[in-house]
């Protein structure tokens, strides 16, 4: 959220993050997705659409969160028609 790549890389290293992080130096993604606070987490469906938005810290390892993630992972992958 308007952070430079150096700050983001340091943050990722400190936390041991291994997943891709989005760089948004102008804040355009933040604005487009309506992010109003940090952390903001989006859970994506297999079709690529955001199905869950959570603003603020969350405990993603608890039973309800794990069940939600497992449900999203179990959904069939949407078939795309050939052009």
Description:
This protein has 83 residues and is α+β, with helices and mostly antiparallel strands. The chain has two domains: 1-35, no CATH class; 36-77, no CATH class. Helix content is 34%, strand content 13%. It is built from three helices and two strands. The chain has helices spanning 5-15, 28-32, 63-74; strands spanning 40-44, 50-55. It has a two-stranded antiparallel ribbon with strand order 1-2. A hairpin with a 5-residue loop joins β1 (40-44) and β2. The mean pLDDT is 88.
Percent of residues in beta strands: 5-15%
Indicate the radius of gyration in whole angstroms: 15 Å
Q: Biggest β-sheet, characterized?
A: 2 strands, antiparallel
Q: What is the overall shape?
A: globular
Task: Estimate the helix proportion, in percent.
Answer: 25-40%
- Count of discrete domains: 2
Secondary-structure-based class equals alpha+beta
Mean pLDDT: 88
Low-confidence stretches: none
Number of strands: 2
Number of helical stretches of at least 4 residues = 3
The SSE order reads HHEEH
Task: Tell me the quaternary state.
Answer: single chain
**How far apart are the termini?**
36 Å
Strand order of the largest sheet: 1-2
In summary, what is this structure?
The chain has helices at 5-15, 28-32, 63-74; strands spanning 40-44, 50-55. The protein is of the alpha+beta class.
List the helices and strands and how they pair.
Blueprint: H1 5-15, H2 28-32, E1 40-44, E2 50-55, H3 63-74
Antiparallel strand pairs: 1-2
């Amino acid at each position: 959220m308007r952070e430079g790549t150096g700050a983001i890389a340091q943050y990722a290293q400190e936390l041991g993050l291994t997943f891709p992080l989005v760089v948004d130096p102008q804040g355009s993604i933040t604005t487009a997705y309506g992010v109003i606070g940090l952390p903001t987490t989006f859970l994506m469906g297999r079709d690529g659409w955001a199905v869950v938005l959570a603003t603020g810290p969350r405990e993603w390892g608890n039973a309800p969160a794990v069940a939600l993630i497992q449900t999203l992972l179990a959904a069939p992958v949407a078939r795309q028609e050939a052009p």
